Amino acid sequence: MMFFPILLVILLFMFFNDNHGGRRYDDYREDRGRAKEILDRRFAEGEISEEEYLRRRSMLRER
After folding, report:
1. SHOCT domain: from which residue to which, for each copy (predicted)?
2. Which ranges constitute the DSSP H helices of the chain?
3. Assuming Cys at both sites, which of 2, 10, 25, 43 could form a disulfide with 53, CB separation 3.0 to 4.6 Å?
């Protein structure tokens, strides 16, 4: 008997939750931006070659 009111509250919360339980497009764009910053830094510090940098950068663009 107490199950239905709890279920209703959970469903209402899910409905009015801003991202509806998933990630928003902006979150993915931010992740990609952070990945590019890390890639740029690694290339600038000489950790990866130009070839590797270009390959990984093109992979990020395809996502």
Report:
1. 37-57
2. 3-16, 25-44, 50-62
3. 43
pLDDT value, residue 4: 82
Q: Nearest CA to 20 among 31, 29, 11, 7?
A: 11
From residue 7, how far is each of 3, 18, 22, 30, 34 by CA, in Å? 6, 19, 20, 34, 38
Two structure tokens written together for 56: 């990984």
2-50 confidence digits (pLDDT tens): 788 888 888 777 777 755 555 565 665 666 788 899 999 999 999 999 9
Name 32's Cβ contacts closer than 8 Å, sequence gap at least 6: 60, 63
In this predicted structure, what is the pLDDT of residue 12? 77
